[in-house]
Design goal:
single chain, 122 residues, mainly alpha, 80% helix, 0% strand
Length: 122
């Protein structure tokens, strides 16, 4: 993970969105049984997942990238409850729900990594 949590999370969800869009497009051009045999979410669900990744990116980009690492990390941590709420709202679409729940989990992992790094320094 890069040393800067915001950059790590942005890269993670931007690349996930791009991969999901590529998958959706690939599935859209497939036809008939070939498309039905594809493992994983269908084209529409993949596109919705990509949009959910875009939502996460927008939330992260709204956090000013300042020199105060503690303030940035605190702002990132404050997104977890919002992401958990979005995950609950998407309960009917497990794949989209997983994007939001996964984002909240990544944020918690970043917090834990930061706390572990601070413990090693003290």
């Amino acid at each position: 993970m890069p040393s800067e949590p915001r950059a790590y999370l942005l890269e993670r969800f931007k690349s996930d969105a791009a991969a999901l869009r590529q998958r959706a497009e690939m599935l859209r051009v497939r036809t008939g049984a070939d498309a039905e045999r594809a493992a994983g979410p269908d084209a529409a669900t993949s596109a919705r997942m990509a949009s959910a990744c875009d939502d996460v990116v927008a939330m992260l980009e709204a956090i000013p990238d300042g020199s105060d690492a503690d303030a940035v990390l605190s702002s990132i941590a404050a997104l977890s409850p919002l992401l958990d709420q979005r995950a609950q709202r998407e309960a009917a679409t497990p794949a989209v729900r997983a994007v939001y729940a996964g984002a909240a989990t990544r944020i918690r992992e970043v917090q834990q990594a930061d706390a572990a790094a601070r413990d090693m320094l003290s």
